[in-house]
Amino acid sequence: QSALTQPRSVSGSPGQSLTISCAGTNSDVGGYNYVSWYQQHPGKAPKLIIFDVRERPPGVPDRFSGSKSGNTASLTISGLQSEDEADYYCSSYAGTYTYVFGGGTTVTVL
Amino acid sequence: QVQLVESGGGLVKPGGSLRLSCAASGFSFSDYYMRWIRQAPGKGLEWIADISSSGNNIYYADSVKGRFTISRDNKKKSLYLQMNSLRVDDSALYYCAREGITPYLDHWGQGTLVTVSS
Fold this sequence. Notes:
Strand content of chain B: over 45%
Oligomer: heterodimer
Largest sheet of chain B: 7 strands, mixed
């Protein structure tokens, strides 16, 4: 149950696009289309923003998108806004009813 | 609307026990798998335990297996986490969360803080 690998921090200016990677193995990210992404503002609970690699829950802006290639999943935020400044975590099913999270990425809007 | 409210956190000495509860409302609790996740101060998220809708199927992370027990009472719409043999590194904010149709977590509580210290 090793954690997925995410960059510690990424930054961008308002209106720009940025991408957060989430590297796993063929036992988790690469083996299943069950990658989800969560946004967490300081002092708040995580909020689901992407599930099943690329699906958005109702109410999540379409500037958030997800994808996967091999053992690496990605979250892209297009048209970056100040309220997007938060921590982002990826998660994947890892087989036999186990789950793994990434270490988290802090997004800073410059 | 869906609401999850955790309780039961507090300060406990190493080796001690604590029981966390999660009260659910706004949805048919007995239809959903539920999960406990924790977050140490300033750290990332860690999956702890998972329980099926009926409570018949239970799964644990290696870090808590043999020490923690997840359970549920569908009549009371409540999820529980019995934590025994607590260690300093179990100190964290503990969240309960609802699983969706596939293994994502679509609703989270606000968490309850557990501090293990002598």
